[in-house]
Amino acid sequence: MLGTQRKERIDGLAESGGDTTAGVSLAASAWRRLRRSPTFLVGAGIICAFVLLALVSPILAQHDPALRLLEEQVSRADNRIPAPQPGFPLGGDQYGRPLLSRVLLGSQQTLLVALLATVIGLGGGLTLGILAGAFGGWVDTLVMRVVDVMLSVPSLLLAVSIGALFQQQSQFTVIIAVATVQIPIFGRLLRGTMLAQRASDHVLAARALGVRQRSIVFRHMLPNALGPVIVQATLMLAVAIIDAAALSFLGLGAADTSTPEWGQMLGSAQNFFDTHPHLAFWPAGCIIVVALGFTLVGESMRDALDPKKRR
Amino acid sequence: MALLEVRDLSVRFVRKSEPTVSAVDGVSFDVHPGSTVGLVGESGCGKSVTSLAIMGLLPGRGTEVSGSVNLEGSELLRLSQREFDRRRGKDLGMVFQDPLTSLNPVVPIGLQVSEVIERHRGLSRRDASREAARLLDRVGIPDPDRRLKEYSHQLSGGMRQRALIAMALACEPRLLIADEPTTALDVTIQAQILTLLKELVAETGTALIMITHDLGVVAGMCDEVNVLYAGRIVERAQRHELFSRPRHPYTAGLMASVPRLDSPRGQRLAPIEGSVADNIPWEGGCAFSPRCGNALAVCGERAPELETIEQGRLLRCHNPIGAAELERAHD
C-alpha cells in the first residue's frame, strides 16, 4: 500500500521534473496538455479528415456534380429519385445529379465559406477590439455601443437580414453575412483582454521606460491578449459552418446550385424528407460532424490555455 | 541645486458615489544628484503613488495630481503624455516590485532591452542588440548572448530583476526610482540586487529614490530617509540620525518591529497595533494617534505640522520621543 503510494509520488515527480514551474511557457504547457487530451485528438482528427477530403475531393468524385446523369430515373409524378446503383453508391438527387460527388465536393465550399467568413470576422473584430482596447475613452465607448447594438440582434436573424440586403445572392453574400455576425463577438472579446493587458504590470513597466505607444499596443498588449481570441476563432469556425448552412438552407446562398454546398443541399432536400431522408442525411451529417470537430478542438484549447487548470 | 524637487505633491482619487481618497497629501522633498533618498512606510502610506506621480504613470481619469515635480528645471506634471514618453526611460527610469509580471512574457528579453535603447539613444537595431548584451553582462547575467534570446519565464527571479534594472538604466537616466525592488525576491538574492543597484548608481552618478517598507534596505542604501504615514511625511533625517535617534513614535515603532541580532534571545517583537486607516485621517488630529503610544490629548484635536527640529531634520509630531528627556535637560 505504502509502496504504491510512494511509487505514484515518484512517478508524479518524474513527470513534473521537466517543468520547473517557471521554466515552461503557457503555450508549451498548453500544447503538452493538448497532446494528451482525447477531446482534442478526436476533434483534430475530424478536422484533418475533412480538410483532406476537401483537398482530394476533385480526385475522389467520379462524376461532375453539376451533370444530371441519372435524369431519366427521376420522376416527379410518382416521386421517384435515383436509388444507389453501380457507379453511384448514394444514388442521385432530385435532379438526377450524383449525390456522392455532390457531398464530397460540397466540403470545399462549406469549409471555404466558413474559413473566409471567420477570417473576415476576425479581422474586423481585431480592428474594433484594438481600437477600443488601446485608446479607451470615447473611442472605446463609441465602438462598444455599436458592438452592443449588433449583439442585441440574434445572430442568425442579423445574418439573414444582411444576406437579404444584397440584390444577387451568392456564396459571397453568405460569407459577408456570417462574417458581420462574428465581428462584434471578436471585437468585444479582444477589447476585454486588451483592457486587462493595459492594467498589467509589464505594460506599466514598458510605459515607465518610455516605450512608444504603437509598440505598447502591438508588441506588449496585443500578443498577450490574443490567446482567448484564437480559441474563440476555432469555436467560431463551427458556428460559421452552421450559420452558412442555415443561410443556404433558407435560400440566401448561391442561386446557382451547380456548385454543391451542404446547407443548400439540405435546403433542397426538405421537400423529400418524408420519402427520401437520405438526401438530407448526408449533407446534414457532414455539417454536424465537421462542426463538432471544430467545437471539440476549440473547447480543448480553451481548457488547455486556462491558467487555472495549468499543471 | 537639487536634481529633483518635489513640492507639495498631492494625489487624490476621485470617484463617483464614493468619497474622495487622498493617497498623497502635500509631500515635498529634494533629491540631489547622485544621492539616494528613501521613502519608507507600511502598505497604503502613499509610497508607490508618489513614485507613479513622479513618473506620470497614474491613470488620467479619476486622479487629481497637484503640486510640482521639477526635474532639472523642467516641470514634469505639466508635460503631455507624448512629451513624457520621450523623457521616461531616458531622463528618469523605474524598477518595479515584481520582476515576473513586469516583463512581457511573449517577447524575448533582448528585444525588450534593445527596444529601449533604440527608442532613446537612436541606435540601429544591430548596435542596440550589442549594447543590450553588454548591459546584461554588466548587471551580472551570465552568458548574455544566449539570454537575449530567452523569454522571461526561462529566467530566475533574480535574473529577471537584473534584466529590469538593465532596462531602467540602459539610457543612464539622471534619476532612478526603485519601488520595492527586492520584495518579491529570496533573501539571498535581495542582497545581490541591492549591491548591484548601489554599484550601478555610483558608477553612473544616477540619483536613486528607494521606496521600501524594509528598514534593512534603508539602512544599507539611503543617504536621506523620509518616513511616510497616511500620505504625509512624518519624519525626515539623515540615515545615521534616523537610526540612532528616531524621534517620531511611528519611526520608532517600525524599528522596534524589525528583529535585531543584538536583542535578547526569546524577546518578542513589538508590532505597531492596527493598520493605516483608508481615508483621510489627518482632518481633526494626527493620523497616527489611534495607534500611538505617545498620544496626548492634543493629538486627537489638531494635526501636527512638519517642523524643522534641527539641521536637515524634519518632524511632524506633538509629542516626539525624547521630548520629555530634552525638557528635563533644559530645566
UniProtKB/TrEMBL annotation, chain A:
The chain crosses the membrane at residues 40-61, 111-139, 146-166, 172-190, 229-255, 280-301. It is a multi-pass membrane protein. Keywords: Cell membrane, Membrane, Transmembrane, Transmembrane helix, Transport. Residues 107-298 form the ABC transmembrane type-1 domain. It is found in: Cell membrane. One of its GO terms (cellular component) is plasma membrane. PROSITE patterns: ABC_TM1. CDD domains: TM_PBP2. It holds the Pfam family OppC_N. SUPFAM superfamilies: MetI-like. One of its GO terms (biological process) is transmembrane transport. InterPro entries: BP-dependent_transpt_permease (IPR050366), MetI-like (IPR000515), MetI-like_sf (IPR035906), OppC_N (IPR025966). PANTHER family: ABC TRANSPORTER PERMEASE PROTEIN, OLIGOPEPTIDE TRANSPORT SYSTEM PERMEASE PROTEIN APPC. Belongs to the binding-protein-dependent transport system permease family. This is Peptide/nickel transport system permease protein.
From TrEMBL, chain B:
GO terms for biological process: peptide transport. Signal peptide: none annotated. Residues 6-255 form the ABC transporter domain. It is a peripheral membrane protein. Keywords: ATP-binding, Cell membrane, Membrane, Nucleotide-binding, Transport. It is found in: Cell membrane. It comes from the Bacteria. The keyword ATP-binding applies. SMART domains: AAA. GO terms for molecular function: ATP binding; ATP hydrolysis activity. One of its GO terms (cellular component) is plasma membrane. Belongs to the ABC transporter superfamily. PANTHER family: DIPEPTIDE TRANSPORT ATP-BINDING PROTEIN DPPD, OLIGOPEPTIDE TRANSPORT ATP-BINDING PROTEIN APPD. This is Peptide/nickel transport system ATP-binding protein. It comes from Actinopolyspora alba.
